[in-house]
Propionate--CoA ligase (Chiayiivirga flava), 627 residues
Amino acid sequence: MRYEDFYRASIDTPEAFWADQAKAIDWHRQPDTILDDSNPPFRRWFVGGETNLCHNAVDRHLAERADQLALVAISSETGLTREISYRELHREVNTFAAILRSLDVERGDRVVIYMPNVAEAVFAMLACARIGAVHSVVFGGFAAHNLALRIDDARPKLLIAADAGKRGGKVIPYQPLIDDACRQAQHPPPRVLIVDRGLDTNRRSVPGRDLDYATLRAQHDGTQVPVQWLESNEPSYLLYTSGTTGKPKGVQRDVGGYAVAMALSMWAIYDVRAGQVMFSTSDVGWAVGHSYNVYGPLIAGATSILYEGLPTNPDPGIWWQICAKYGVRTMFSSPTGIRVLKKQEASWLTRHDLSALQWLFLAGEPLDEPTATWISQGLRKPVIDNYWQTETGWPVLTLMPGLDLKPVKFGSPGLPSPGYNTRVIDEATGADAKPGEKGVLVIVPPLPPGCMSTVYNDDRRFVASYFSHFRQLLYSSLDWAVRDADGYTFILGRTDDVINVAGHRLGTREIEESVSTHPAVAEAAVVGVHDELKGQVPIVFATLKHAGADTAPALAMAMQQRVVDLLGGVARPARVYIVGALPKTRSGKLLRRSLQALAEARDPGDLSTLDDPNALEEITRILTRGP
Ligand code: ATP
Ligand code: MG
């Protein structure tokens, strides 16, 4: 099938298109109405239909693939690998669901899951889905404050956690974080179920509150818990946005629409079908983890690989070793992950048999051309950039090799996914930007199945945050973009990252890309700072691949020259700072907001999602000293 025809059908006749896609999942009751769009921007897909995510991800595969691997959970931190078949997954999930029921968790109740990237996190998610409880996974690397914020918003009946995580060989005990979060929260969960991995030997549980998973598992092992059939638009889960731009919002997802979107995206975009293997390096705590470590691959009847550990441990070939061992067909990672590998020898990419590997998908942040070229040449595999958001749950812009692969253009995530009526518009007039003209990326409602239904408990915030930027009712997360004559969209950064130099609007992304073409540069961050004369000027923070022979001033000049050569004198960075690390969120996103604030000697704001505080401290020091 041609991409063009498939996409056109999804926009011109959405009800017929999605009714057809809905056949890919099991329904307990068929929907009465495919789309109810009577109350925009809220829309309801598959109204009256009854289904269940756990049934579609687990039970329905038992007939044909009970002994096939469903989940492989590999930890290079503990050295353990767990290979779990669909039959075993079914048993674990039923047992977990029985535990939830024994703790009075009911349909519609929220359950917060605060876990490292281990199999039990997946069991817990699916067990919630099975009984109609609404899970809210909080990334295990978040601090107590983040956890408390999310607890107070979700008000869970239960918190499920592990005794500890492990990162780079270091044990990170969770109990102090849980205790602290429960103290900070206005609505602490009455019960905490602890999955004891035996990592934190000094742990002291709180009597009356904390429960031991292994004990309860032994009590309930083998119990069958019937699937709770849910109306398609009931909530399945909450997932808080990563918080690059302010207070996290509880993205609420539905049941039926999400299942259908997962099924479609697995074959059409990621080119993975039942029996094949997908490896996403994400943590289950992120949107990618939810969709492409858990629900997508399992709904498709594929094998999903979950990885706990650094990409460089025990050696920088670990990801490719996993690909070779399990015959991974599609791999999914982030540009940040690849940049970590880029600091290592390229020969690590070719030491394992990657004949099964067809595609490497990268998402989450701009994919700069040097990184894309390095990895695709190193692996000799196609690299596909895909653009989406926690809110959308699956790609908005991508190429679709499962359908027919259009040419890859580095720097662009490609073409709109089915159901996404995307446009690039002029911010002021709302008119379509011409090819080559910059504008804001918007989606004309209704949003397709799989996208968020609302902000949890806050319909007004849903409308205000996403649909109130323009005169017309258009969805936008305010990314700045440009479309070429072939319809490929290039993302230039967030609109609040646009730098206005003497009336010229420059995307931070364009400047970062130019700086990154310098061979010594590992990664660059560009922010605009106030300037008396020009309004704003760009400044650069760059990390280097190796501490090289060139002196910092010579390197800085060379980087400035690159920008002048590629973008013109107007984009010339006023200053270049060479730093050891860039400040990022735990999901690997650059905290540009904070960088800009520091550079303008303002308060860096909410740093609760910051990964490594040392990065900001170093930058503060350098800024006060000068480049
Ligand atoms: P928050 O919305 O809480 O401030 P966030 O936007 O960083 O945080 P995510 O939903 O994880 O949270 O990220 C989505 C954003 O990431 C997009 O809006 C876009 O700015 C950026 N992004 C994602 N994928 C790509 C990509 N392939 N190319 C360029 N930018 C991307
Ligand atoms: Mg966002």
